[in-house]
């Protein structure tokens, strides 16, 4: 009997598969039959119609192909990106126009300068809050979690898409130091999810979960790719930022979609007559023959190291602001009530400070993000030994020139102000990223170093005759890559920089700076995205640190939970009830018996709850009552044969009464289906029953007890027949790898089939954070102390194993000579 | 008793760990004690010595860090790469000098032109053959296999390193169309392995297996990176070529080491006064403001598609040549005898054809690979409407000009000749790669298309006033990336191209062409490396194809082997013997009992063989003989108490005789340790025994039978307590993922703890190749027919499961009411 459920499940699944297959065949059969019929049809447009049907058939069969999906996704995202950019440009132009038109009155100018972003940001925050609060923030941390296999609710819906796109456009249109690249990763994933849902109307393949995750990974690449028109950097950045283990077979998907998307994005610009042909977004024109001198490399290394510290500081500052606002309960309560006040206040502060006739004049506040970047990457030198006459500061570069101040002071002010402004602005609850602001700050820092170098060595460092002056723009490129790499903990910002500038001549300085920045930043702080993951407490596994040897020495046995909740194959419903009441794990282990502890599978909590509610639920109760009524009737009919009419009436009365009683006794039907609620309510009901029902109650209690004592029937219960198993000696390093590879939530620790422990994400996270944060020179890993206790417990294990083997011995054929002989041998 | 071995193993492991830990502490304790002692020492240089010891301690503790290892690796590889390049350049110069010096006599010139490469290639082939045959070929296929977890013997030794470096230098110095990039991946891995071995003298961390694999992955990146001075492209190329799943946490390792290596490699060139500063290897100077017109994109797409076909053809041709030579037994036998004849013949043929005054004049045969690439990437146009006067063909470009022939004809001849030459040359058994020759052919093809376009549109395509002439050099870049991408099935050749040329302006055309080339090539042929893997029959899992839906429909139950070889916990040695004789699997499943089939673990074949040989081996036999002798003695002493001296003599005689007999009976001691050899020899020995020993033989046979009937004692036998388990419904897609993620060799298929099948690499490979090669529109996956039979067999499974549950029922407390009730419920 116990075996039936597996058979039934297996048979059911097979029948289901066969049914599906047949229906598929039938459907295709139907189609071909219509085709045949059409061919016999002698109408005028028969041929036409045959052709149409064939084309349709062909198209539908092709829709399932990946590349169609990727092309559609790329196209869609390029359009979205272009439209968003277009709207942002219009918004910014409008602000400039307002500001420029009111130049007669400074106060009106200020009002216009400040009101515009406040209104936009407030609208963006309010709109997102109302439509879909999930659209707030960057989106990369959430995508990282989703790609790990965690399901975040409401995160990939159409509502979120609308909220994110409109919210982002407004937020960026305000001119705040915010970026579009994180949100675009989210938007691309939303597009992919919606497109996938849409395409599943045509073919069944879109419903496959692992395929969806592959497509989401490609979508992340598209998001970055079409945002910067950087297909290669986009793919690499998205891999670094969202994946732990990357399937190389998905590589082409990302490249394909991102290239197509970047291509369309740039073609739109050409068609719109913005550009003559497809070139880089922030094209630079550094000289190619001698991009930099070898002796400049130390300066580039300094940029890298300083950017590393700066990046860590940025992440820390960002987290500090969030935590400060959360901790200050008074502020928090006030802000919670007036949710739009915080964005408005922050925007007011930032835009006041950047007001060009005010403080903004000292920090090039007039320039938008894009304009500042273009000027910073300029290949001319701004400061030439104090004499600036040969540099005419045309166009936007004029903003950097201040009659009273040096360019250096402007740059330092720009860096310092933008630094905290960006850290503050990214905490506003609107859809926004931090990549672009950080990128600009990095470029400014690089420019600062570059200008200093140019001032220090006006004729360049090279001493062999030819004068190659220093190019501060190259330093800006290096600084931008280094700082953004440090904040996001990625190396691929280097590639993004090359694609953005269209020049790869500074590859070595950029790579050196980015690697140094990463080395410094990674040893000080988590990446910005990991920091947000921690703040938001998303279920994610932290990375193993660099070169921490402990991870090889910690074993699963040091971190596992030994007290595993399990159910046995022959347990009764009472055990089930007790286990469900005490533990909180999502899944429970199924073992052969409490003595052998051989792991057979794992069952989800919900499944067990439904088993329990089936056993004690409404239908069972009804059945029992009906049975009892029938028995009563029988008894009555036996007793009152003479007055059968009267007896019949009494019986029916009793049944009616029972039915009335039942209604109260069972509580509301909805609550019956969760076992705990049911259990408490049913026991509760027993007490509040009216006295007249006492006998009946006792019977019911008795019935319940009897039901609970029955052995559990695992029919119709989904069992995971092969949960993931580890060995007690598996190292933390390997456990981490397996967990992140397979996206596990928990794994059982077994020893020769016997369940001895369980490791869940929680234990693993604790262990890693323990080993990562403690940095002293330790000979013993922090958790190794458990191992000594493990030795003693292993004896217990061994005695328990003895039982298992002894049980075996008794089951096997009696060979009394064996143990003694093997004893002798082992001696 | 049965439980003991687990306890013992566990306890042993723990004691071992404790011992290691203690010894580590003691060692560090020793060190600090010397330090303390030194501090109390009042000598003159005591402080100095303290300082030295401290520094030494610090350095040794740092040696374990990854970054030191990576820096050393990068440095070493840069030096190797530079020295190899230097030697190759000298070799090529020598050839040119010889050829140039003999210009009086064409025949002597020919002799010099031909003899030089023949001697070099023959030496290279002979040297490699003698020192380390593993050094032959590219090395990337083997590294791919090693990174998957397969151990290839003798593949990472110092001998191989020497053979590879010297062989490669000679092979490339000959001027044959061979590349250095594949071998450099291998050389870098060799360096990493040797360095790791060397560094393990300082710290124990280098012995960790998973760390070694991480370092090998980084080494592959270094190999490509320092070969092309392309750190980013190197990392990406090595990932694409060697990994299936890539751990993003290893990313920085690759970047770090490859950047450092590329930096040193280029700095060496600067120090050697070859270059003024660090720039790209094959620097191009295309115009930046208008790199290409949008309307040129179709031409780039055509290059991509044609390169896809070309790449597939190259792989096919290469395989065809190898297979042809293998199949022609007469040739094969002859070549096997004279191993150096084949390389010599091929070299003779190729160098004859490239002889500049001969056929070489029509195909720029004078130029080395590097020179041709430089000329092909030239940013001037060669053919301007037939009038070539404004292009003066200076320097090497002169080789492309022929008085009678058009440039187009020269290019076509170059492409066609080099194509088959490269395919042929890469089959020579010397260390060589195919990337660079393919790259040059691709560049030539791109140049051809570019020149044609330039001839067709002499004033460029752009119609809006400004004339932007077409840049054929840009087409060459695109062609090079596309063809090498098609042959290797990688997208990252695009990045390599940018790093090699130092210009990224053609990013979109390159990406489009590379992706199209990949799409075409991947649907026609495996990559060159996969093709070599198949030819060499290395243990590797093929990739799942693009968008084949079947992979989601095939289940493990369709492909698994149902007849699993297993041993039970209570089996006797005879069963062990039988199982070992029949099967050939490397590991055997250990189940609880044949009835329950609950999987407990897996044991390696070698372990079982040693168990068996322990049971029937020499020490046991000696012991038995001694015992028997003692018993005999006792018997004799009981029988012959009166003549005890005589009896003692007889006994000792008998023992001596036995000992003499034993020597023959046991065969050579070496053969005893493999069980099969032992078994056959022992049974054989029983028959050839002399007649006088018959009684003794019978006793021995009896003893052997008794030994075989004993129950197996699993003490001291290493059991894998948690082998990987799958469920019967796992899809092929997921199985493939898990196998390649975890580098599995086989996995057991279980259902609620019960073993029902096994899947090994072989089955998986068959299934994938079945589903990948068959391309028809199938509603049923090719293997689904098994599923119907699976349904019937599942009933058998179910009945077997019944037994398991029944057994349980009988073991649990007797509750006779339960089965009937549950029967009622389920009805």
Structural notes for this entry:
2 copies of one chain form a homodimer. Chain A has 827 residues and is mostly helical. Among the domains of chain A are: 62-272, Clc chloride channel (Orthogonal Bundle), CATH 1.10.3080; 300-383 and 396-534, Clc chloride channel, CATH 1.10.3080.10; 556-616 and 714-772, Roll (CBS-domain), CATH 3.10.580.10. The first copy, chain A, is 64% helix and 4% strand. In chain A, the strands form 2 sheets. In chain A, strands 2-3-4-5 form a 4-stranded mixed β-sheet. Chain A has a 3-stranded mixed β-sheet with strand order 6-7-8. In chain A, a hairpin with a 2-residue loop joins strand 7 (746-751) and strand 8 (754-760). In chain A, helix 3 (66-101) packs antiparallel against helix 4, helix 4 runs antiparallel to helix 6 and helix 8 (209-228) runs parallel beside helix 10 (251-271). The radius of gyration of chain A is 35 Å and the shape is elongated. Residues 1-13, 385-391, 642-692 and 772-827 of chain A have low confidence and may be disordered. At the A-B interface, helix 1, helix 9, strand 1, helix 10 and helix 18 of A face helix 1, helix 9, strand 1, helix 10 and helix 18 of B. Strand 1 (245-247) of chain A pairs antiparallel with strand 1 (245-247) of chain B.
């Amino acid at each position: 009997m116990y075996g039936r459920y597996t058979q039934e499940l297996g048979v059911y699944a097979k029948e289901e598969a066969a049914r599906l297959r047949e229906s598929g065949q039938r459907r295709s059969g139907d189609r071909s039959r219509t085709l045949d019929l059409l061919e016999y049809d002698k109408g005028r447009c028969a041929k036409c119609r045959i052709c149409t049907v064939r084309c349709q058939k062909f198209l539908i069969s092709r829709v399932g192909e990946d590349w169609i999906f990727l092309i559609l996704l790329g196209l869609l995202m390029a359009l979205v990106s272009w439209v968003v950019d277009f709207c942002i440009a219009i918004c910014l132009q409008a602000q400039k126009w307002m500001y420029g038109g009111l130049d007669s009155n400074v106060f009106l100018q200020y009002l216009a300068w400040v009101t515009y972003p406040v209104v936009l940001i407030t609208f963006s925050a309010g709109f997102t809050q109302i439509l879909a609060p999930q659209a707030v923030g960057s989106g990369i941390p959430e995508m990282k979690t989703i790609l790990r296999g965690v399901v975040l609710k409401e995160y990939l819906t159409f509502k979120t898409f609308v909220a994110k796109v409109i919210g982002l456009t407004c937020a960026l249109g305000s001119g705040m130091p915010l970026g579009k690249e994180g949100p675009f990763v989210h938007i691309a994933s939303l597009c992919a999810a919606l497109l996938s849902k849409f395409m599943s109307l045509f073919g069944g393949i879109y419903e496959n979960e692992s395929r969806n995750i592959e497509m989401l990974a490609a979508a992340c690449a598209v998001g970055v790719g079409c945002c910067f028109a950087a297909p290669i950097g986009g793919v690499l950045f998205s891999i670094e930022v969202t994946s732990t283990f990357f399937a190389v077979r998905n590589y082409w998907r990302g490249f394909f979609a991102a290239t197509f998307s970047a291509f369309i994005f740039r073609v739109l610009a050409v068609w719109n007559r913005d550009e003559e042909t497809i070139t880089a977004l922030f094209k630079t024109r550094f000289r190619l023959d001698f991009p930099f001198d070898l002796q400049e490399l130390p300066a580039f290394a300094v940029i890298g190291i300083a950017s590393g510290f700066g990046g860590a500081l940025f992440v820390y500052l960002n987290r500090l602001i969030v935590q400060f606002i959360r901790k200050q309960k008074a502020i928090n309560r006030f802000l919670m009530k007036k949710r739009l006040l915080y964005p408005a206040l922050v925007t007011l502060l930032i835009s006041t400070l950047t007001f060009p006739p005010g403080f903004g004049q000292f920090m090039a506040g007039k320039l938008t993000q894009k304009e500042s970047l273009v000027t910073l990457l300029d290949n001319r030198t701004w400061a030439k030994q104090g004499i600036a006459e040969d540099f005419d500061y045309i166009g936007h570069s004029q903003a950097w020139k201040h009659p009273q101040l040096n360019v250096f002071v402007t740059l330092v002010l720009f860096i310092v102000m933008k630094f905290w402004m960006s850290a503050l602005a990214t905490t506003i609850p609107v859809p926004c990223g931090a990549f672009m602001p950080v990128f600009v700050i990095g470029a400014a820092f690089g420019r600062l170093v570059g200008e200093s170098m140019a001032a220090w060595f006006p004729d360049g460092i090279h001493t062999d005759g030819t004068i190659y002056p220093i190019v501060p723009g190259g330093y800006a490129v290096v600084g931008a890559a280094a700082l953004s790499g440090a904040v996001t903990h990625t190396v691929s910002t280097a590639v993004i920089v090359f694609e953005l500038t269209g020049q790869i001549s500074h590859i070595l300085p950029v790579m050196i700076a980015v690697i140094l920045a990463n080395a410094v930043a990674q040893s000080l702080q988590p990446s910005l995205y990991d920091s947000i993951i921690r703040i938001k407490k998303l279920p994610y596994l932290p990375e193993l640190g660099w070169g921490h040897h402990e991870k090889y020495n910690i074993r699963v046995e040091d971190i596992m939970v030994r007290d595993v909740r399990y159910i046995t194959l022959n347990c009764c419903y009472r055990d089930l009830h007790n286990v469900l009441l005490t533990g909180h794990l999502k899944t429970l282990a199924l073992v052969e018996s409490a003595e052998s502890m051989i792991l057979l599978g794992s069952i989800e909590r919900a499944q067990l709850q439904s088993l329990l509610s089936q056993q004690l639920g409404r239908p069972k109760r009804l059945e029992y009552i009906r049975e009892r009524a029938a028995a009563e009737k029988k008894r009555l009919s036996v007793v009152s044969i003479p007055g059968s009419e009267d007896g019949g009436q009494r019986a029916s009365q009793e049944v009616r009464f029972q039915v009335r009683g039942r209604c109260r006794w069972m509580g509301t039907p909805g609550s019956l289906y969760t076992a705990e609620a049911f259990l408490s309510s049913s026991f509760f009901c027993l007490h509040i029953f009216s006295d007249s029902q006492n006998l009946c109650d006792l019977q019911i209690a008795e019935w319940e007890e009897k039901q609970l004592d029955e052995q559990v029937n695992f029919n119709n219960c989904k069992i995971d027949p092969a949960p993931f198993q580890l060995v007690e000696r598996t190292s933390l390093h390997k456990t981490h790898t397996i967990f992140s590879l397979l996206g596990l939530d928990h794994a059982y620790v077994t020893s020769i089939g016997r369940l001895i422990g369980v490791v869940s994400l929680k234990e693993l996270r604790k262990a890693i954070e323990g080993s990562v944060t403690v940095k002293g020179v330790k000979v013993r890993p922090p958790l190794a102390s458990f191992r000594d206790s493990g030795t003693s417990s292993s004896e217990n294990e061994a005695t328990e194993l003895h039982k298992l083997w002894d049980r075996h011995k008794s089951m096997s054929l009696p060979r009394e000579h064996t143990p003694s002989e093997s004893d002798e041998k082992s001696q």
